[in-house]
Amino acid sequence: MSLFPNLLLSLFLLIGVCNGRTKKIEEGHVQMQTQTLNTNPTHFNPQVPPLRTLSSSKRFEGSSEFVKLKYHMGPVLSSPINIYLIWYGKWPQSQKLLIKDFLLSISASDRRVSPSPSVSDWWQTVSLYTDQTGANISRSVSIAGEYADLHYSHGTHLTRLSVQDVIATAVHAKPFPVDHRNGIYLILTAEDVTMEDFCRAVCGFHYFTFPSKVGYTLPYAWVGNSGKQCPELCAYPFAVPGYMGGGGPGQLTPPNGDVGVDGMISIIGHELAELSSNPLVNAWYAGEDPTAPTEIGDLCEGLYGTGGGGGYIGSVMKDGEGRTFNLNGRNGRKFLVQWIWSPILKACAGPNALD
């Protein structure tokens, strides 16, 4: 459920190399909006040094009978999905535009807008998951509203409970409707905001609000900008830990020139995929403990292309300026987003697969 990069020791590499069949850690510098054009991109499979963390890896890098992903009869987000964005803290407009371009690319199926492999193609794997009626997760995703909490109404340090107060403030201020059927609430904290367990155990997480806190049960996700706090953990592989300094391959160049926000993009995708397939923590997950489920993003954490595993992130693309990506988005954007577990292939899947 919560995302912490586990690109680690080979002890935890449970399956080996991906077969590549289609395949949870926060105001930043102002920069111009960048459009990274796909000019003669080249494919490469960079070997990036693994992270040393204390948590064990949940990754299963290829098709595996050991992954017991089960449906627990709960709902998935099968109706058109309305995202309500909460910008907590001071966010430069350029960073907002980058994140919104990613979100709006999910439903941008027009090849002239987002050529393949696209963010929309990537969401196809998420949309394969169904509820007990056979209804698939919706492929329609839109930004239905935004709220900017510029004055840090609940302080610059949040907890898993107080983040629900942030949602309550937004809802009670009435910029948002209470959207029980279609709504999800995405809280994005600026890089000067700390969060309980951020940079130690999580890069992002999702859950649902408690009526005692917000007045309603609403699915939500939180992701923080790690740019000044722990980019080597939550914007990896665009930054690498200091203990790796000098030896072996270095960090990759982010596709939009912003280590913190480019790192957030994959985490946002991870959490949205899991929130859509397990919004009330009673739908799609592996394991028997719903308080610590292994979900469809966890299973493919750190994998971005064909041939991933053993320190390799998989085959991705690099443009003429050396910027690394695997998906195309609207407005000429490029993104590097992890793959998702496919219920059909029973393997990690993404639209940039080479076979």
TrEMBL record:
Q: Name one GO cellular component term.
A: apoplast
Q: Which UniProt keywords apply?
A: Apoplast, Secreted, Signal
Keyword Signal (UniProt): yes
**Pfam families the record matches:** Phi_1
Q: What is its main location?
A: secreted
List, alphabetically, the InterPro entries matched.
EXORDIUM-like
Q: Does the keyword Glycosyltransferase apply?
A: no
What residue range is the signal peptide?
A: 1-20
List where in the cell it is found: Secreted, Extracellular space, Apoplast
User: What family does the Swiss-Prot or TrEMBL record give for this protein?
Assistant: Belongs to the EXORDIUM family.
- Protein name, as recorded: Protein EXORDIUM-like 5
Gene source species:
Phaseolus vulgaris (Kidney bean)
